[in-house]
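User: My notes are a mess, but here's the protein and zinc ion's SMILES. Can you give me a structure?
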Amino acid sequence: MPITFLFLLHHIAGSVQIESLRYFAGAAGVALLCRLLGPSIAHRRIQPRRASRADRLRELRQSLWAMGVFAIVDLLTVVLIALGAIAFNRGAPALGTIAWQTLALVVMHDAYFYWMHRALHHRALFRRFHAVHHLSRTPTSWAAYSFATGEAVFEAAIVPAMVAAISTIAPAEPWAVFIFLGHQIARNAFGHAGFELAWPGFTRSRWTGWLTTTVHHDLHHSEGRSNFGLYFTWWDRWLGTEHPRYHERFEAIVARAPESSVRDVPVHGAVGP
Ligand SMILES: [Zn+2]
Ligand SMILES: [Zn+2]
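Assistant: No problem, the inputs look usable. Here's the predicted complex:
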């Protein structure tokens, strides 16, 4: 099919629609869950400070902007398909293929995110690309896509690149991409939720300790100098960038009795690159 202006416009409109559906399902879904759980998770609030309505609106506005950028960057997918670098399986979906491709996408995305994120914290890049995301000192699930234009480009460009990498081995399964993106927004929205829902011992267990928690990313927002990882704790542990008191902070929050106050948690220091 020839790539025409109208075709590209149609593609952009479709991308915005799908991205916003995914964003609202994740961000609003997690916000609604926290509200519904209400008093039963009040003692699991991570920070003493509460995000204001203005904070949430800023996160929402910035996320809407970023989704417009995602849609334009996603034109790369159209170009790579036209060049033959991306091929999707048009036949019946194969479960095994969906499983390995989903896993590969998650692991590749986690590695890419860690290094991209660390680069964005370099003082030469922080203000221009990443400071907008860190305006959320007390993040909420609405911050999931709260990115400046430049960061939104870096965040989105990896998806067609990964699908192209998969296509060198086998035609990409649309279901694998769909599940990967669903997992991405769910983990992203929970990572910014402001409440810790995991259980005591989670961060130290050999079965669960390799998964990031909400406290993990919340500490990144409140202090900014550690915990750069996305889905897994591997990279931060390998590279020595895990918050030195991560386990301690986590346990202090999850050990609170339901009636205890969030004021037990210290107020965090300044954020910077
Ligand atoms: Zn950051
Ligand atoms: Zn964040």
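The CA atoms of residues 141 and 193 lie 5 Å apart.
User: Great, I'll file this with my notes.
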